[in-house]
Amino acid sequence: MEERKTSKEIDVIAVVTSVLSEWKLLLKFIGIAAIIGLIVALNSIKEYTTSVVLAPELSSGGLGMSESLSDMASTFGIDLGSKSSYDAIYPEIYPDVFASTNFILTLFDVSVKQKNDTVTKSYFTHITKDTRIPFWDYPKVGITKLLKFFSSNGTMNNGKINPFMLTRDQEEICNHIRNQISCKIDKKTSLITISMTDFDPQVSAIMADTLQNRLQDYITDYRTKKARKDVEYYQGLHDQSKKEYIKAQQAYASLVDSYHNSSLEAINVQKERLENEMQIKFNIYSQNTSQLQNAKAKVQANTPVFTTIQSSTVPNRASSTPRLLILLFFMFLGGLADVIWVLILRDIFRKKSSRA
């Protein structure tokens, strides 16, 4: 065993010695790789990520046995399906909402402004006009533009967006935005983390705040849709019954003013009839008013509330890979290439050349 260990140590020492003995070649490999890494690092686009953390509102009331078991299981990362405790649609589908094309299309018109710019523009214009492209993507962009030149489906359709039939450019922009946004749900804490990535830090913060508001509006609209329809329905009944009550009230008042000294039985009967009709109209009006107020209260009760744990702030540090790390990675690849060349490839090429 000691002899085997010694032989392995000697082999490692021999490998290191053979590589370092040709240190000039090693420096050449590392130098060439460093130049390539420097070019790649300088052309890589810095990206900034802004994150917003929200806590969804839970339903009121004490915890039952099943909810307590769900809380205990969540500490081990197990979800027992306690979705009924949320006062909104299930948070697990929020990422699907973010990924939907209908939701992404609503972000096109969001007004943004870069950190070192005074011009306000739409997010769609920001993506299409301000996005920088690294040099290694130039061939791909050129081929894409060439294909669009021969294709009638490559135009932006005069800026008009038809969700039913997107152009190729609009679909590509939707895919780009889909890759830049993120929504994650922590099953243990039920916290919602919304992230937005962009090459400009201020645009990243603006869009993260917009995503937060759009998500809340989407969930609120979904959760209160039935209640808001009830409000519209009872509002119509309320307005109609109010008009009928006022009309009956005016008819009764007009009759009383015209015959206030009359003792005719026919007039008294008509007064009583109009008074009863006015009372019926008032009861209907009062009932519809109560139903309208209850419907409005139901809208407020069904409106979900999100507690903001971390709000949107402009990031100062880039979230992309640091350029120094890219340079060091390429230098490591250069050293690895030298080792492979010295120990393996060079002997193979020599044998092939000698046979030829």
Structural notes for this entry:
By secondary structure, this protein is an alpha+beta fold. The chain has three domains: about 1-45 and about 325-355, no CATH class; about 50-225 and about 305-320, FepE-like (Bacterial polysaccharide co-polymerase-like, 2-Layer Sandwich), CATH 3.30.1890.10; about 225-300. The chain is built from twelve helices and six strands. The strands form two sheets. It has a four-stranded antiparallel β-sheet. Strand 2 and strand 3 form a beta hairpin. Helix 2 packs across helix 12 (about 325-355) and helix 10 (about 225-260) packs antiparallel against helix 11 (about 265-300). It starts with a helix and ends with a helix. Residues about 60-70, about 80-90 and about 150-160 have low confidence and may be disordered.
What are the main properties of this structure?
356 residues, 8% strand, 3 domains, 4-stranded antiparallel beta sheet, 63% helix, Bacterial polysaccharide co-polymerase-like, 12 helices, two-stranded antiparallel sheet, alpha+beta, single chain, rod-shaped, 6 strands
Short description:
With 356 residues, the chain is α+β, with helices and mostly antiparallel strands. Helix content is 63%, strand content 8%. The chain has three domains: 2-43 and 325-355, no CATH class; 48-224 and 304-320, FepE-like (Bacterial polysaccharide co-polymerase-like); 227-302.
Write the layout of secondary structure elements.
Elements: H1 2-21, H2 23-43, E1 48-56, H3 65-74, H4 94-99, H5 101-105, E2 111-112, E3 121-122, H6 123-130, H7 138-149, H8 168-180, E4 181-185, E5 192-198, H9 201-223, H10 225-258, H11 265-302, E6 306-310, H12 323-355
Antiparallel strand pairs: 1-5, 1-6, 2-3, 4-5
Helix pairs in contact: 2-12, 10-11
